[in-house]
Design brief:
Blueprint lengths: L1 H15 L5 H17 L4 E2 L4 H20 L6 H17 L3 H28 L12 H18 L6 H17 L3 H20 L8 H30 L12 H17 L14 H7 L19 H30 L8 H17 L9 H18 L6 E2 L4 H36 L3 H14 L4 H18 L2 H17 L5 H13 L9 H14 L4 H14 L1
């Protein structure tokens, strides 16, 4: 039952990695909570340096989002929960339960790898990405499963199965054509080689050749997939154009350099506490002229360097905790001697897996993907357990005071995460009621969503759009005034997003005669200038600007 629960939680997290839905995130975390509750009393390490770093980073993400950031996002507490939840689960895995979790991870990753191969072989895609939006995300997930599969080759038994598994995962990785993913794998293998020497773990005869054979077989399978696509397309004439990995490298590097420079420009005056979690998108919209590679319509929330983005969004405290969380396992393991590690091969595999994601984060954004956070936390917790002395492993939360504290913490987390879920559900029901012409129910539930999450600008904007449509349909002053109030509240909640400001301009332009306090021409032009400063290349901003000019003539 435990492997199935873990796999179900991972699937929910994977779906939520594409569809940014608090309800999906809560489902994944709820499955993890059930898994933890159903487990028998576990032995876990106590307070360790790695645990302190993980908790510090997760708490800083939440505290920064709630107390410091001018641009609240519901994603912050969920991302922190995925990391901390995976970490707590990994700390409690003994040898038996660890094997079950690895089997579930391997099964899920293999499905994704075969899915990616099928996409390329079918000709619909030039790069495999399976369920995810980007091939790079799939590459990160596959690397986290591939390295343990390669480590299994060194154990001896069932080598045929291990070779087949590693070859399938490698084929999926190579089918993504992700330069960052391939380099991350190389970094992981290098870390494995260095720690194998450090811990004096000699490879069994033929192991290196098996590793090379598995990777080579995966590369061959990935290379054959486009040939299959061309053969299938011979009769239909439809095939995705081939992706030039080397030819696009220069353009990709240039785009990343532009993003890095834009992110670095925000450090002046913000390095202390940062601009707020997931604040990079607003930074991009305001500075698109500095990122011509993305054009006027390219969308990204990420600087494609998690270390730089963490510094920009969470400031120096966030970066310090982030670096400690990533670096401590390697530093602590390097200080250990061979006789101080009970399972050296498992530790090396875990460290190498962690290294792949840490390396990939230099050029992409895995630490902002729920499934990647969950798996990284799981591996990090496993490393923490393996590095802890055996005498430090003991049942926790047995004392009455500890249980009471645990209940209070769990209740606080539940309340923190429940509000975004409830607001999303309320807004979804309101949208449905609006589509079915039940205006009274739509109005009620839009207002419920706004009150549940008053700092989330989206719910104010949804309500404003509804009331704007009601004003256009019925011509009632009350509807126009409610629209204007919703848009004003939305812009006050997040002054970095122009949508509510554009809605407010539209409300005054179209229904100014129905408003109690109609904005004059100077005020409207001032709002328009603000919107242009926030998104100078946004087509919606320029469309509203043209309408406003015509209105003021």
């Amino acid at each position: 039952m435990a492997p199935l629960l873990f796999l179900a939680a991972a699937i929910a997290a994977a779906i939520g990695s594409v569809d940014a839905s608090p309800a999906l995130w809560a489902l994944a975390l709820g499955l993890l909570a059930i898994l933890a509750w159903r487990q028998p009393e576990r032995l876990t390490p106590g307070i360790t340096p790695i645990a302190v770093a993980v908790w510090a980073y997760a708490l800083w993400v939440v505290a920064s989002n709630l107390l410091i950031s001018p641009a609240y996002t519901a994603a912050a507490p969920f991302h922190a929960a995925f990391l901390a939840g995976g970490f707590a689960l990994g700390r409690g895995l003994d040898a038996a339960t660890r094997g079950s979790a690895c089997a579930a991870l391997a099964a899920g990753a293999t499905v994704l790898a075969l899915w990616a191969l099928a996409q390329v072989a079918g000709g619909a895609e030039s790069r495999g990405h399976a369920h995810f939006e980007t091939p790079a995300t799939l590459a990160t997930v596959l690397n986290l499963a591939l390295v343990p599969a390669l480590a299994a080759l060194a154990r001896g038994p069932r080598r045929t199965l291990a070779v087949a598994l590693a070859a399938a995962l490698a084929a999926g990785l190579f089918a993504t054509l992700s330069r960052g993913g391939t380099l991350a794998l190389a970094c992981g293998l290098l870390v494995a080689f260095l720690f194998a020497g450090r811990l004096r773990l000699a490879a069994q005869p033929g192991t290196i050749w098996l590793l090379a054979a598995a990777l080579a077989l995966g590369w061959i399978l990935a290379g054959l997939a486009p040939q299959v696509a061309q053969w299938l397309a011979a009769g239909s004439g439809a095939s995705a154009p081939a992706h030039d990995v080397l030819g696009t490298a220069r353009a990709s590097a240039a785009a990343r350099v532009e993003l890095y420079a834009l992110a670095a420009s925000a450090l002046d005056g913000n390095a202390g506490l940062g601009i707020g979690y997931l604040g990079f998108n607003a930074l991009l919209e305001a500075g698109r002229q500095a990122v011509p590679s993305y054009g006027p319509d390219g969308v990204t929330y990420f600087a494609h360097n998690d270390y730089l983005q963490t510094l920009v969004e969470l400031g120096l405290p966030g970066l310090a905790a982030f670096l400690a969380m990533i670096g401590l396992p390697f530093w602590l393991a390097w200080r250990r001697r061979r006789d101080g590690v009970s399972e050296p091969l498992v530790l090396i595999a875990v460290l190498a897996s962690l290294a792949t994601m840490a390396a990939h984060a230099v050029v992409d954004f895995p630490f902002y993907v729920p499934l990647c956070l969950l798996l990284f936390g799981l591996l990090l917790g496993t490393a923490d357990r393996l590095l802890a002395p055996q005498r430090a492993l003991a049942p926790r939360w047995r004392a009455t005071a500890a249980r009471l504290a645990g209940i209070l913490v769990a209740a606080g987390i539940a309340v923190l995460l429940a509000r975004p879920v409830a607001a999303e559900v309320a807004a979804g029901y309101a949208q449905r009621s609006w589509r079915t012409a039940d205006a009274q129910a739509a109005a009620y539930w839009f207002e419920v969503a706004r009150r549940l999450e008053p700092r989330d600008w989206r719910y104010h904007w949804y309500a404003g759009q509804f009331w704007l449509a009601q004003a256009a349909q019925e011509g009632k002053p009350a509807a126009a005034q409610l629209a204007e109030a919703a848009f004003a509240a939305g812009f006050a909640a997040n002054a970095r997003q122009p949508q509510n400001l554009l809605g407010r301009i539209s409300a005054h332009r179209r229904f100014g005669a129905l408003l109690a306090a109609r904005a004059d021409a100077r005020t409207l032009r001032g709002w328009m200038d603000q919107a242009l400063a926030l998104a100078p290349l946004d087509a919606r901003v320029h469309a509203e600007q043209a309408l406003l000019r015509k209105h003021l003539q």
